[in-house]
Amino acid sequence: MGCLCTSESIDINGIRYNVRDLLGEGGFSCVELVEQASTRKKFALKRIKCHSLDDEKIASNEISFSKKLRHANIIELIDSCIKGSADTVVNSTSEAFLVLPYFKRGTLHDYLALKSVSKTYLDVRDIIRIFYDICQAVKYMHNFTPEPVAHRDLKTGNVCLTDNMDPILMDLGSCAPAKVQICGSRDAQRLQDIAAERCSMTYRAPELFQVESYCVIDQRSDIWSLGCLLYALLYYKSPYDCVYERGDSVNLAVISGNVHFPEETAFAKELHDLILFMLQVNPAERPFIEDVIEKIDEFKRHLDTSI
């Protein structure tokens, strides 16, 4: 999907925004830098093109989750609307608009890419602080009432960084009720297709690659993604990015559970152990977010006593 980032102006619920630049685009949406006409304040505008009622439902779902998930480390939805109607008329489309804060530092993925070029690791204390705050946002989602929520696409590209280097979890388009009961092959195939479409391959949990016909998928699919994200904080990429770049099967690598760490490393074995703690192939053996946070607290105490 292409976005025209010229001198376009967009009205959202009576407020005028002028498009200034294209910040990024994916398969379903694009994000533009916009400026509020009256205040000149900058925002990020996410635009989602809807070609069907199903697309519109998915966009509405993202807006709904963005409105109700309120946490210091989850992106704030400032305003939103859907224009047009993606009904049964041929070539009929609608477009969803989400006004979000603009983070000039960009994403954690951007930041790590720069670090990899300079070949300098993040300080271990910064790694723990960033990861801990991400885990707090995930804990909030996993314990949300009346129904726990799973993000289902946790990755460095879905974490923005504030000027103070605080992580802000974004892109709630893949969010769903945390617990899903799979009853039969049709249910399994449906969830597998959704995961293939909306969950990034190199951060995707094994149970979402090959969904069993009779099972329960829960929030621990996010814990696998967190393990990949922590690995990326250490070594710039998910442990399965290299598999993808070689052209090998990510599916097979993930299901095998093999995780390779660099032989020469600046990091303690305890951090590798924490990653492996989360990357359990069997979701029933994988920890919940509270267990992960407890391990981080232990590691933080160890760091404090080693000064």
UniProtKB/TrEMBL annotation:
Lineage top rank: taxon: Eukaryota
Domain Protein kinase residue range list: 17-300
Enzyme class: transferase
Matching Gene3D superfamilies: Transferase(Phosphotransferase) domain 1 (1.10.510.10)
Gene Ontology molecular-function annotations: ATP binding; protein serine/threonine kinase activity
Annotated keywords: ATP-binding, Kinase, Nucleotide-binding, Serine/threonine-protein kinase, Transferase
Annotated ATP binding sites: K46
EC nos: 2.7.11.1
Catalytic activity from the UniProt record: L-seryl-[protein] + ATP = O-phospho-L-seryl-[protein] + ADP + H(+); L-threonyl-[protein] + ATP = O-phospho-L-threonyl-[protein] + ADP + H(+)
GO cellular component, one term: Golgi apparatus
Similarity comment text for this entry: Belongs to the protein kinase superfamily.
Protein name in the entry: non-specific serine/threonine protein kinase
Organism classification: Eukaryota, Metazoa, Ecdysozoa, Arthropoda, Hexapoda
